[in-house]
């Protein structure tokens, strides 16, 4: 294993909270705000991960991904559509020739409670169905027991299956108990081969938040300084407003720099964020908010 738990520095919660609070006070002028909201759209993994997902819902989501607002051809498309493995083929077909990627959750999402052999098979299936990216969950129970070798090996083996496909590793930070554990999990995941580290599944109450995200971003920066390799970041869970998206853009820019403000290194995992951004852009353009009736729900 190319990482040891003693390699990860201890976190300083007070200092982290103070930095986040300071960055949260940043404001953007109108032109910069509009530009930032356009950028935010291009960074979205438009997501549906519900038990009631149907092929029809996936196809509607893909249409929304292709053309967020039919009245404004200047808007970018989202980065990807994220679905369960059994819906990858439908999404891939609907998004053909658009440049929009298809991401699939895997490895027994959201719990991660399956033997590694079956996790590998699920990843293989999603890739065979056409997935461009895999969002895997780590085994939080094993991590919390201190079985770091197990978690490292499962990430490394899933990356082996993914080969050159993007692997996003979900830490589910709300279940890791401490910021020190978040830092350790971040370092472990990157050392094991993650292309992105991701905060949350979005399936528990405690999801992405700026302090946890700052811990992960600092880990990414330290890893870059040590190895020269840029690892991506994906906050997910509870990111539903333009204001929140803008705060994350500022956070990433200040910690990692402008190079990370690109879909190859930064994604938002979200289902309703796009709707709010469209409403906010409409307000910036017309001076009043459009009715939500003009924005498709899915």
Topology overview:
Layout: H1 13-24, H2 30-42, E1 44-47, H3 55-66, E2 80-83, H4 88-94, E3 101-106, H5 116-128, E4 133-137, H6 140-144, H7 148-162, E5 166-170, H8 179-192, E6 196-198, H9 210-227, E7 232-234, H10 242-256, E8 268-270, H11 273-286
Parallel strand pairs: 1-2, 1-8, 2-3, 3-4, 4-5, 5-6, 6-7
Helix pairs in contact: 1-9, 2-10, 2-11, 5-7, 7-8, 8-9, 9-10
Keywords:
single chain, 298 residues, alpha/beta, TIM Barrel, eight-stranded parallel sheet
Structure overview:
The chain has helices at residues 13-24, 30-42, 55-66, 88-94, 116-128, 140-144, 148-162, 179-192, 210-227, 242-256, 273-286; strands at residues 44-47, 80-83, 101-106, 133-137, 166-170, 196-198, 232-234, 268-270. It has 298 residues and is α/β, with parallel strands linked by helices. The chain has one domain (5-294): Alpha-Beta Barrel (TIM Barrel). It is globular.
The SSE string, one letter per element, is HHEHEHEHEHHEHEHEHEH
Total beta-strand segments: 8
Tertiary shape: globular
CATH topology: TIM Barrel
Summed over residues and divided by their number, the pLDDT gives a mean of 92
Termini distance?
43 Å
Describe the biggest sheet? 8 strands, parallel
> Over the alpha carbons, how many angstroms does the gyration radius reach?
19 Å
State the gist of this model.
With 298 residues, the protein is an alpha/beta fold. 46% of the residues lie in helices and 11% in strands.
């Amino acid at each position: 294993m190319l990482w040891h738990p003693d390699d990860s520095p201890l976190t300083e919660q007070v200092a982290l909270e103070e930095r986040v609070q300071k960055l949260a006070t940043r404001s953007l002028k109108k032109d910069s705000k509009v530009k930032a909201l356009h950028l935010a759209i291009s960074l979205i993994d438009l997501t549906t991960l519900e038990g009631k997902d149907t092929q029809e819902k996936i196809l509607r989501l893909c249409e929304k991904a292709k053309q967020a607002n039919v009245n404004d051809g200047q808007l970018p498309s989202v980065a990807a559509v994220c679905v369960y493995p059994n819906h990858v083929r439908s999404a891939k077909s609907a998004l053909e020739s658009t440049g929009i990627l298809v991401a699939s959750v895997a490895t027994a999402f959201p719990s991660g409670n399956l033997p590694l052999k079956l996790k590998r098979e699920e990843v293989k299936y999603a890739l065979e169905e056409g997935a461009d990216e895999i969002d895997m969950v780590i085994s939080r129970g094993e991590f919390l027991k201190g079985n770091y070798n197990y978690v490292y090996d499962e990430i490394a083996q899933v990356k082996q299956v993914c080969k050159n496909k993007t692997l996003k590793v979900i830490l589910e930070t709300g279940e890791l108990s401490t910021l020190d554990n978040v830092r350790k999990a971040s370092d472990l995941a990157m050392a094991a081969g993650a292309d992105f580290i991701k905060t949350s599944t979005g399936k528990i109450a405690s999801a992405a938040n700026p302090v946890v995200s700052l811990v992960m971003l600092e880990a990414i920066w330290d890893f870059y300084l040590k190895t020269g390799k840029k690892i991506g970041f994906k906050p997910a869970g509870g990111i539903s407003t333009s204001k929140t998206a803008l705060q994350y853009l500022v956070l990433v820019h200040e910690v990692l720099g402008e190079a990370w403000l690109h879909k190859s290194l930064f994604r938002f995992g979200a289902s309703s964020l796009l709707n709010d951004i469209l409403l906010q852009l409409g307000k910036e353009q017309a001076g009043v908010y459009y009715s939500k009736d003009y924005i498709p729900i899915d």
